[in-house]
Amino acid sequence: AVVSTQSTGLHPQYFGPRLIDIVKKKLFTEVEGSCTGEYGYVVAVTTIDHIGNGVIDQGQGSVNFPVKYKAIVFRPFKGEVVDAIVREVNKVGIFCEVGPLTCFISRHSIPADMVFNPDMECYQNQDEGIVVQKEDEIRLKIIGTRVDANDIFAVGSLMDDFLGLIS
Asked: Contact 87/104 with Cβ under 8 angstroms?
């Protein structure tokens, strides 16, 4: 869990006896599911510690309330082993999702005994009959991440023990 502060702006039409509830609801809407380069993906706001005094925005007429809160976040890091769902398979590699994170596994990071089958659009192992295709669950190791202002992308690998198709 991380502690963060967010400034939540409200139009004067929302002022009244339910002001605090509206500020909380707006914080949940703005923050949950968002992504920041500093903390990663905000999964859920757990507690709201403090709602500060509002400051009037001179040009707009709205009021910004500083809100201090705690949240559960998902920030993937290099070397982390995660479970993912395959979303696309092609000759270049595998695209998968780890919750909100998009991860790409290059064909160079897929074991050499697994070959792309263009007819079935999958990677398959001739010896053991293992097939990795769309909608399968796989376990992968994150070998790199790129963090933008409001998104994170990852590159993964299946070249390690206990990685690959989850049966």
From this structure: no
Given this model, what pLDDT does residue 126 score? 80
Residue 142's pLDDT is 97
pTM: 0.81
What DSSP assignment string belongs to 76-106? --TT-EEEEEEEEEETTEEEEEETTEEEEEE
Closest CA to 50 of 2, 3, 15, 11: 3
Answer yes or no: are the C-beta atoms of 158 and 140 closer than 8 Å.
Answer: yes
User: Are 76 and 86 a contacting pair, CB within 8 Å?
Assistant: no
Report how far apart, in Å, the C-alpha atoms of 82 and of each of 8, 69, 75, 99, 131 are: 34, 27, 12, 10, 19
